[in-house]
Amino acid sequence: MAKKKVTGMIKLQVPAQKATPAPPVGPALGPHGVSAPQFVQQFNDASKDVEAGLLVPVVITVYQDRSFTFEMKSPPAAVLIKKEIGLSSGSAEPHKVKVGKITRDQLKKIAEMKMADLNANDIDAAIKIVAGTARSMGVEVEG
């Protein structure tokens, strides 16, 4: 079986279970000849395990015959941190104005969710990466 020729890679952040052919999905897929409704249906089915509305990065590989495959990543650390401690947004001045606190257990939970997408060898390194993101959002890290 011959490998299909890749004609494009599209990176998007789409809300889990709530993708629609409207922007940003439709305009991103259109120029590549990919059927937006077909992608939307497959993505919404694939994102059933993720909390509805949570932003999920997705990499779509488009082939010459206009077929496609996609790979879902874990939601961005900042999105998970905001959800975990109930924030609406990070701090405008993260080193001066603190907007919340996060515990080591909460960091560990997020790090475990993101482990596959992080450049870390073990859970401790992953926790440090997530803690850095939290600090840059103005969230105080406890422990």
From TrEMBL:
Q: What does this protein do?
A: Forms part of the ribosomal stalk which helps the ribosome interact with GTP-bound translation factors.
Q: Into which family does the record put it?
A: Belongs to the universal ribosomal protein uL11 family.
Pfam families, A to Z: Ribosomal_L11, Ribosomal_L11_N
Q: Which UniProt keywords apply?
A: Methylation, Ribonucleoprotein, Ribosomal protein, RNA-binding, rRNA-binding
Protein name stated in the entry? Large ribosomal subunit protein uL11
Gene Ontology cellular-component terms for this entry are: cytosolic large ribosomal subunit
Record's subunit section: Part of the ribosomal stalk of the 50S ribosomal subunit. Interacts with L10 and the large rRNA to form the base of the stalk. L10 forms an elongated spine to which L12 dimers bind in a sequential fashion forming a multimeric L10(L12)X complex.
Q: Where is the Large ribosomal subunit protein uL11 C-terminal domain?
A: 73-141
Organism's domain of life?
A: Bacteria
State the Gene3D superfamilies in the record.
Answer: Ribosomal protein L11, C-terminal domain, Ribosomal protein L11/L12, N-terminal domain
Q: A biological process (GO) annotation for this entry?
A: translation
- NCBIfam families this protein is in? L11_bact
Which molecular function term from Gene Ontology is one that the record holds?
structural constituent of ribosome
Q: Which InterPro entries match?
A: Ribosomal_uL11 (IPR000911), Ribosomal_uL11_bac-typ (IPR006519), Ribosomal_uL11_C (IPR020783), Ribosomal_uL11_C_sf (IPR036769), Ribosomal_uL11_CS (IPR020785), Ribosomal_uL11_N (IPR020784), Ribosomal_uL11_N_sf (IPR036796)
Please describe the post-translational modifications of this protein.
One or more lysine residues are methylated.
Q: Where is each Large ribosomal subunit protein uL11 N-terminal domain found?
A: 10-68
